[in-house]
Specification:
By secondary structure, the chain is of the alpha/beta class. It has 14 helices and 14 strands. The two termini are 41 Å apart.
Length: 351
């Protein structure tokens, strides 16, 4: 039996997309038993996966929790430790545990955070890159492989896809919400997740552009589409303002607010209830991909190449010079309503 430890704690969307490695691990490792170490907020994203046997939670910056986890796993000799977080305490933890093989972030010979040679393809584009940030950024911009492709190649696995099994209670929650809002299940529901939290302002679409996109789609789809405004707690005020503006538009009667206070699994079920998702590079995007939902995703500061849509949608990329610069103020003005609408219409026509 292969006992495998995966260390991946954040961010939420990154945890979910990393589940793409699970089918390959089970396929290639005899009778694999998988333990996943993650953050408490992310536990629901892996706890229901049928290929995960045990989930352990810790906060990466909590030395007491890390010490407790280390003590819990001290007697275990893992066949393979796959360490995918670059924080120093987690690198130290990966190096301290017993394993026949370690791939990914760990402490180097000098005791500093580094990574194993076989993980160069991923960590060479990040903060731990051995030749510095400028070289890492250049590789990030030039990269054309998706995250699941990179991880699959790094681990010598067949490429898989993320999966998030949803409990019945979350599916009922979503169905009840849509019924309460009065959405018509016979008409297309376009989920709009156009915010992105506070860290990456350039990931967000300006509200005026969202309204323009809705109005164009409302006309192009003969007023049949319904629009469900999505977001988390950080989007509460933004979505309130968006609904206020939309309530005065020609699409007013077709716009609905899903609310911003759902659990992760309930939110995932709401996203999965849509016909198509228009989204920033965010948790909602990864939820849509895991749900195999037709998706149009837009990108300005981050890499579109890393996102694998599995043939279920389109990406709309910034045409500005600072695309994929990971600047919080990257220019996203070229992601126009016309480009978004055209992509949505194409995906709807083929989905």
């Amino acid at each position: 039996m292969a006992d495998i430890l995966i260390i991946k704690t954040g961010a939420l969307g990154d945890v979910l997309r990393t589940t793409s490695i699970l089918p390959g691990l089970v396929q290639t490792q005899a009778a694999a038993k998988i333990t996943w170490l993650t953050a408490p907020m992310a536990s629901d994203l892996v706890a229901h996966h049928p290929l995960v046997d045990r989930v352990l939670c810790l906060a990466a910056g909590d030395s007491h929790e890390i010490a407790a986890i280390q003590a819990d796993l001290a007697a275990k000799n893992f066949s393979w430790i796959i360490s995918l977080d670059d924080e120093a305490p987690l690198c130290a933890l990966a190096s301290a545990l017993q394993g026949e093989k370690l791939t990914g972030a760990c402490l180097d010979a000098t005791g500093r955070p580094g990574y194993s040679d076989d993980a160069e393809a991923w960590f060479g584009m990040g903060l731990l890159a051995r030749d510095g940030k400028a070289a890492a950024d250049a590789r990030k911009l030039a990269n054309q492989r998706s995250h699941p492709q990179i991880l699959a190649d790094m681990l010598a696995l067949p490429m898989g896809r993320p999966e998030l099994p949803l409990p019945d209670a979350s599916c009922r929650h979503a169905a009840d919400l849509l019924a309460k809002l009065g959405l018509d299940g016979e008409r297309p529901i376009i989920g709009l997740n156009t915010g992105a939290g506070g860290r990456w302002p350039a990931k967000e679409l300006p509200l005026a552009r969202v309204v323009e996109t809705v109005q164009e789609l409302h006309a192009d789809l003969d007023e049949q589409a319904q629009f469900l405004i999505l977001g988390g707690p950080e989007e509460r005020e933004r979505n309130r303002e968006l609904m206020q503006v939309l309530s005065k538009s020609k699409a007013a009667g077709t716009c609905f607010a899903a609310g911003c206070d759902h659990s992760i699994l309930d939110f995932a079920a709401i996203v999965a209830s849509c016909t198509l998702l228009l989204t920033s590079d965010s948790l909602a995007m990864h939820l849509g991909i895991a749900a195999r939902l037709p998706t149009v995703a837009f990108f300005a500061p981050t890499s579109a190449a890393e996102i694998e849509l599995y043939g279920l949608g389109e990406k709309v990329l910034s045409e500005a010079a600072d695309y994929c610069s990971y600047r919080p103020d990257a220019d996203n003005s070229s992601i126009t309503a016309r480009r978004l609408t055209a992509a949505i219409l194409r995906v709807l026509a083929t989905s």
